Amino acid sequence: MAGVTGLLLAGCADPTTELADARTRWQDQDASSYTFTLAFTCGDEEERGTYDVEVTDGSVTNVATVGDTPRASFAELRRHAGRTIDGIFDLLEGSTETITEASFDGTTGIPQTISLSQTSDGSEGEECFALTNFATQ
């Protein structure tokens, strides 16, 4: 796997450019059907967990809990973890929260780790997630 581009967006000179460059690399992949694992690693206890996400023709078609993540209805899973990779970029670009940390695959642009906070120092309302196991279908 190619190198990972890591950045601290809250302190970055131009985080918009970093995010746009990663999204361009992702769009260059031209992937509309794929799977990945999404792990929520901080934030509210009830929202932590790991989910396998399946995307077909650009839409989330399946979300499944992994391991000891509490089971929920598909609607609840989709609300919480049912984002496409484009949807994750949309979240980052439209976030009112501060992106305190982000890393992207250096070749594909896929977000690998993301931390969001209601404050620029990460002291309140933190939400963290990681994407792994990406595969095209």
From TrEMBL:
Q: Which domain of life is it from?
A: Bacteria
Q: Which Pfam families match?
A: DUF6174
According to UniProt, the name of this protein is: Lipoprotein
**Which species is this record about?**
Klugiella xanthotipulae
Q: What is the lineage of its organism?
A: Bacteria, Bacillati, Actinomycetota, Actinomycetes, Micrococcales
